[in-house]
Amino acid sequence: METCSTSILVSLCFEVSQAVFSIGTFDVDDLLVNTFGRMLGYVISKSLHR
Q: How many CB atoms lie under 10 A from the CB of residue 16?
């Protein structure tokens, strides 16, 4: 659960900084896809390192 929370927070920081500094747009889809990708990577990593 900690990995999921960290993934969401990191993605949110990137999205907010894009909006604040006008270097991109805030997109909820990016939050979801980035979080899913990180969680998938975590699961794969855990299964390979058994």
A: 11
